[in-house]
Write a structure and sequence with these properties.
This protein is an all-alpha fold and 148 residues long. 70% of the residues lie in helices and 0% in strands. It contains four helices and no strands. Helix 1 packs across helix 2 and helix 1 runs antiparallel to helix 3. It is elongated and about 100 Å long.
Length: 148
């Protein structure tokens, strides 16, 4: 008891009599997993666009005329305009979102960070692959030569 007549220690609260405190789980880096999920979405969009392209080239046979190939791809995209637009938007949005999530995950320094590192490496590789494909397509369309 202190000078005011109050007890020196407060009475135990009802929650403190239930047992030892439950340890909280360690914090997780959700941004890291979101970056990896964006890479998965990007892969799905890439596969969808490649399937459309392969179906067009298989219909035309080997060594198609570049103008005919372009017309056929445009026709196929018009037939499936919603899916094609979804694929192209997803191929742009998913890597950008993954890049953002990956950078934020690495800045936060909360484990696990390996999914963010993997996501950033895969996004970088896909950008390099996209650049190679664009250069190849530009060279093919410019020369009018059949693609290999």
């Amino acid at each position: 008891s202190n000078l005011t007549g109050m007890p020196a220690t407060p009475p135990p609260s009802p929650d403190s009599t239930l047992g030892p405190p439950v340890p909280s789980s360690p914090p997780t880096n959700r941004y890291s997993w979101a970056a990896l999920a964006c890479v998965g979405l990007m892969a799905v969009y890439w596969i969808a666009i490649m399937m459309i392209s392969l179906s067009v080239t298989s219909e035309l046979g080997p060594n198609p005329d570049p103008k005919e190939l372009q017309r056929s791809i445009q026709t196929k995209m018009e037939e499936h305009s919603f899916l094609a637009m979804l694929g192209y938007v997803g191929m742009c949005a998913a890597p950008l979102a993954g890049l953002g999530f990956g950078i934020v995950a690495l800045i936060k320094k909360t484990p696990p960070r390996w999914p963010a590192v993997v996501a950033l490496c895969l996004i970088g590789a896909s950008v390099i692959l996209l650049c190679i494909v664009m250069v190849f397509l530009a060279a093919t369309m410019q020369s009018g030569a059949p693609s290999v």
